[in-house]
Each structure stands twice: as C-alpha cells, then as structure tokens.
Amino acid sequence: MGGQACILYGGAEFSRDIDLSVGIDATNLAAIRKALDSLRAETIFVPSLGEAVLRQGHTCHFRCHADGVEGLRIDLMSKMRGCPDFGYLWERRSIISLPEIGEIGLLSLADLIQAKKTQREKDWPMISRLVETDIAQNIKKADEQKIIFWLKECRTPAMLIQLAEENGELCKKVMSSRPLLVAALDKNIKELESGLLEEEMKEREQDRQYWQPLKKELEQWRLNRNA
Q1: DSSP secondary structure letter of residue 72
Q2: pTM
Q3: Rounded distance, CA 82 to CA 199, Å?
Q4: Any domain includes 13
Q5: Are residues 42 and 97 in the same domain?
Q6: What's the domain range around 104?
Q7: Phi/psi at 133 (nearest 5 deg)?
C-alpha cells in the first residue's frame, strides 16, 4: 500500500519508504517479527509492534540496517479509516508479478484510493492520477462495475463530465451516493468543482476526527518514554 503501490498502479510517486498492510493474528505477527529481524529493523517512534496497537489503527515504524537496505523505512498498519478489515483487503487484493521478484499483493485500487483520503495535501492529486490512469488503461474494455467505480471516484471535472455524458443511466443510479454527479450531467463546471472541493473537505475533516484520539495516545506514549 502507500506510495509504492501508487507507482505500481501507474500513478507516479517518489517514495523512500514501504507501507504495508498486515494481518495481525499470532502466526502472522511472528512471521513479521522474523522478517524484520532479518532486515535488522529497529523500531523508530512509538508505538512498538503489537496486536493491540495495530487493531486500534496505529502505525508501527521501522528503520532497516541490513546490507542492501540500509536506511529503508518500513511502516506497518492493519486498520485504515474507511477501509474494511484485513481479511477483506486480502481477498480483494491485486496481484502483480515483478521481474526477479515474483508475485506481490497490492491493495485493490478501490481500497488504495480510500486509504488515500486523508488530511495530507499530497494525497488528493494522487487519487486523481490513480483514477485517470485507470480510465486511460481500461476505457476500451470497461464493464459496468468499472464505470460505476469511476463515476464514484473520478476527481477530474472534464473526465467526470465525459463519463456522465457517455453513461447517463449509470450516472443516474450513482447520484444518490454522489450528488455532484448532477452537475456532471448538466456540464456545470463551477458547481462540479465546488462539489469536488466539498467532498474533499468532508473527507479531510473525517480523517482529522479519526486521528484525534490516536494522536493523543501517541503523545502520551512519547511523554511516558521520555519521562
């Protein structure tokens, strides 16, 4: 997940770290710790890796020191705002094959986009690029489910207007969950841009509220560690 997944989906993003979504049963946590040991990964920041903190939605951060990966940062998380639990994420994952590496799993595009709906400024242009790339790569072979996905997630006004114009009936079906599609059908650019901004601000605020108690907990851990 994260920046590396965006690269592999074609939404170019320079990323120095690797973000991983992980399952947190006892067997998997043991395997994760073994892998981290092989990378000579040290915990940086708080909290320390554990089932409870991952279930709460915290991220565990590591810095690697093994030969060939010196300085690589790895961030592990299991719960993300708006996303289903890991079991569903795993079932819906995309699988790609990389030369000299083999098969790896990525968050599905839909789940990656949801995970990117944060307070961070840089995430919103990335959502647009991910959807734009998906449209460019699949427009000639898109089924109804794919078009509905684009209608729900596209954030580029011109593309959204074109999708609405070419798929009017599907657009009307999706309107109840995304009211700004009315403006897309009407080709009202100003209203559409306003609706997209309102959507973004709402998601940012929801993300801020989600992280507020987690940040308080992190701060308390930092204070306890430094006491």
Answers
A1: -
A2: 0.89
A3: 14
A4: yes
A5: yes
A6: 3-108
A7: -65, -40
